[in-house]
Amino acid sequence: MRNYRYLTFGDREKIETEYAAGGRPADIAIDLGVHVATIYKELKRGDTGQLDKNMRREYSAELAQRRLIESFKCRGRKSPLYKKERSDNMAALHEIARQYAEEIRDGIAWVIIWKTGRSWHAESVWLNQDSDTFELEDLSTATEILEQDPNAVMVNGYYCGHFGENMTIAELEAGILWHYEGGCNLLKDSTAFLLSRYHARKTSRQIFHGTERKPPRNRIPIYSTAT
What we know:
Blueprint: H1 9-20, H2 25-32, H3 36-45, E1 47-51, E2 57-59, H4 61-73, E3 82-84, H5 89-99, H6 101-106, E4 110-116, E5 119-125, H7 136-148, E6 153-155, H8 169-182, H9 191-210
Antiparallel strand pairs: 1-2, 3-5, 4-5, 4-6
Helix pairs in contact: 1-4, 2-3, 5-8
């Protein structure tokens, strides 16, 4: 299954075609390689308020795409890095769920969750809508996070299971804990991180070749995990 990516307009057109033809959300999800919850949330995003020929809520790919773009325009500044140094680690996780509830429910931002010792931390990032990769600054942040915690997870209420738009803070907290303890949606395995790292390395090689310089043999790798 593909993970950590935004649906493209082509994906939405496919959803519109298959759903209008009577396709089941579960089958559409398999066809696109996404979680079935993503399809249900996408159908809600593109709901025209009308009924289709199958007497189901009509879905419009164009409307869904327009609403997505509007959400991107209104997303504002990302939340600052949040660290909670407390012995009561569950209270700290609850506070993180509260602070990042809007980002998780909105489904536009991705929230990276990680631990150092008993302390929980969180950082919200956004993927490039066209390439589904991290911006260079966010790639650097993600790399630093993985050095602190190789088990860091990357969650998004729109694309990940165990989350929903109307969940309470306690339910969001439980969803975060479920992903982290179960090793689901690991940051290090995400398509976004792997593609971003690949493009960064490719760009670095092109720069070296363009200036006819060879990379130093002892250069620091773009990605490493703490041992």
